[in-house]
Amino acid sequence: xxxxRGQDGAPSPAGDLLAQIPPELRLARPLQLPDALSEAxxxxxLVELASPNTNLDEAVCFLGGGTYDHYVPAIxxxxxxxxxxxxxxxxxxxxxxxxxxxxxxxxxxxxxLETCTATFPDGPAALAEAIRAAARATxxxxxxxxxxxxxxYRAVVRSLVSPPIAIQEAGYHGGATRPSDxxxxxxxxxxxxxxxxxxxxxxxxxVPALAAVARRSGALLAVKIDPIALGVxxxxxxxxxxxxxxxxxxxxSRPQYGSESLGLVACRAALAPAVAGWRVERRDxxxxxxxxxxxxxxxxxxxxxxxxxxxxxxxxxxxxxALSMAAARQAQRAIASVEGFSPRFHAPFFxxxxxxxxxxxxxxxxxxxxxxxLGALPLQGxxxxxxxxxxxxxxxxxxxxxxxxxxxxxxxLGELRGGxxxxxxxxxx
Length: 429
Known about the structure:
4-stranded antiparallel β-sheet; single chain; alpha/beta
C-alpha cells in the first residue's frame, strides 16, 4: 500500500488522513479490481447488470398504489430536457419563477381554490403541511384521517406531524369512508378531516357529506386528490374542501425510482397565511417570490406538469380520465371472469380496484411478475382485515390486448393452483 507521499517525498494531505487509521486496520495489499474495459465492453456490461430489472418498456403495468403509468406527450420530455435538473427556489431566474407561477395558477383553477403555494418535494410532505396549516388556522391539535387514504401518506404524516398533532383514523365500509364514522371521532379538538379522492382502493368518497361533517365540528376538510381524476370529477373546492393536496407525478412524469413526485397545495384565501413555504406572485409584469423555501425542487419536475396540462388541455385531461376509467372497468370485468378472483368492493371507482383471490396474494403478484405483468399489489400488509386481497390499476395506456393478457395469465394461474408452484414458464403465455 502507498505511504501517501507526494512526488517530492514529502507527506501528502492524504497521508495526514491515513495517519488517523491504525496500521493494523489499513489495507495492506493492492485493490482487487477487474481489468479495465473498453467503452463498448463497459456499455454491454452495464446492460447485462440492468437486465434483471423490470421496466415499463418491457412489462405491462397494472400497478398503482400512488404512482401511475399514464401517457406522457413527447413535448413534455423535450421541454423537461431543456430545463435540466437544477433546483428551483425563490432566487431562481424569471423563466423558472414563471413556471412555478403557472403551475400554481393551473392547480388553483383545477381545484377552484383561491391560493396555491409553491411546490413541495412530494405528495406526503404536502399533505403533512396541509394538516399543520389547518392546526395553525384553527388553533386545534387533532386530525381525523380516513383509513382509506394511502398508507404511505398516513405513515409519513404521522412521522412529520405527530406529536404535537394527534391523529385519529376513521374506518371504512364497502370501500369508502362513512361520514357517520368521522362524525363520531370529530370533536372540538379536530383541526381537519383528511380524505383521499379517489381513495387508496380507487373508490369515490362522498366529499360534500364529509365537508358537512367537518363544518359541524368547526374543522376544515383537507382532500388529497388524483389530478387526473379532475378531468371527470367536480372540483374539490366547489364540493366543500378547504385545502387540496396532490402529487403531480401523473401529470407528465413516469413511474421510476423516486417516482418523480411533486407536492402541490391549494387552499382558500383566508388560510394562505397559515401555509408554510413560498409562492410566486406576478406584480408589474414581473414574477416575485414571497416567503422562504425550506427545500429545493428540481426544475424539470416543475416544468413537466405545466407542459403536460398545456399540451393536453381540459379536453385531453378529461379524455385521459375517461379512458382510464373505461380501462379499469374492462380490467375488473376480465379479472372477475376468472374463477377464484372477485371484486372486494362494489362501490363506484376510478382507475384502481381491489380484488379478492382464493390463493395467496403475494404468490399471485410474484407469478404475474414472472410473466412481465406488474400488478396485484397485496393489501394485507397495510390492511390486516384484507387477507388475500390485491390492488390493480389501469390507465389510458392499457389496451384490450394488455387486459386480455392479464386475464389469460390469471386463468393459467388458476389451472396451476392445485400444485405447489404457481410460477409460469415464458412459453405459458
